[in-house]
Give the backbone structure.
Amino acid sequence: MLQVNGVSLQFGSRKLFEDVNIKFTKGNCYGVIGANGAGKSTFLKILSGEIEPQKGEVTMDKNERMSVLRQDQNAFDDETVIRTVMLGHKRLVDIMDEKDALYAKEDFSDEDGIRAADLENEFAELGGWDAESEAEKLLSALDIPSDRYEEKMSALDGKEKVKILLAQALFGNPDVLLLDEPTNNLDLRTTEWLEDFLMDYENTIIIVSHNRYFLNKVCTYICDVDFGKINVYFGNYDFWYRTSQLIARQQKEQNKKAEQRAKELQDFIARFSANASKSKQATARKKELEKLTINDIKVSSRKYPYINFKYDREIGNDILFVENLTKEGYFENISFTVGREDKIGIVGKNSKAITMLYDVLMGKEEATSGYFKWGKTITPTYLPQNNDEYFNGCDLSLVDWLSRFSYDHYEEFVRGWLGRMLFSGEEALKKASVISGGEKVRCMLAKMMLEGGNFMILDEPTNHLDLESITSLNDGLTAFKGCMLLTSHDRELMNTVANRIIEIDVGKVYDRPVTYDEYLEETK
């Protein structure tokens, strides 16, 4: 059992959380949520011992083991893949190394024999004889080919390293498992495997994630980092969201009633305090007014951008026609026609092929062969997965940056659009070249809204966004009346927005008017 007692932490004058008391129990999965900068990852570092709180303590039973998903992809570059996974249980690997060193000695002594026997007993107790097969099983489930197990980590790409570090965290059945954004860079199939693995896990899991579907699937409790506190709610993310919204509404209604009653009392006291016949009633109302409590509704650190896509031109009958489109090295012979009601989810094993398809359709790349044609009434607008070309080396303020894409260049007008995307006051004057990944995506979404396109192409639009921005984006895309091509690792987004799924591999291998969940069920 992991227990947090009276933990407080602040950086300078900024208080992240105060007097946190939580008991994390076996058999439960806790999702840690909160706005960007609220302190979610910092809280996990406190739990792991990487950061010491200013007050309070974190305790765990001395015989229990904690495992943490590491974020440094290059930390094990000198190790083999299989050994990197097994280093998730460092004591086990230390025993293996010491055993090997003892048995390699030419002058093996009686003392060495006693030590070796002790190590063999501990090795067996820790499940050492099954350790390598367990590591291989995890790697196989995460689609790491067996011929790579003895390769050095330095030979692998970033996405493969992420999977191996995830296998490392899961290895050896740790008593407490800390996972910070475990679905980042995982494809949807691998994420589904991880969901099933964690749902069957019998020990304690604590997760930070922006993936709503994932949180809904695996979490039994939600730890909400907000208002300088961490409050624990029973249930998954959706249950927390409904509960928190209900509590906020009830508190506002109670305050409104209290304010109305206070005004009534104040009016009565002002009118009759000098009236002898009403003096007792006025005194009674003064006492009631003193007891009346109006709760201060704290300002949440959560902020939801306003995302609402409207197009300037009605859509005609001809939308987009694609015939045998080929880009050598990426895809070949892709054909489809977009209908007026289509919001198409584009899926496939090769994400680079999907990005290239979008770049070809938007005229950023030339097709090797084939043909595509946009309808005369169609105005496409594009959110690329990599938006560096719009920001790198750009010394413009965000006001001036967004003004380039606006039909109205008046500063107050542009600031209004930036304000919708949470850039208010001095925030709107930041240089475009220095903003964060999430801020770049919000700027690109503001650009798309100003462009007023009636056909949107979105390549991984939730990358770098927090839960609040993802929720707003989901609502905006659901309400959009135009056509769309969409690719996302956010299963909730895909399932609630797309009404047709096209899977591309070498060519088009699947095309049906279904939801994403229905597609997954059909293609299992």
About this structure: The radius of gyration is 29 Å. The first helix runs from residue 40 to 48. The first strand starts at residue 2 and ends at 11.
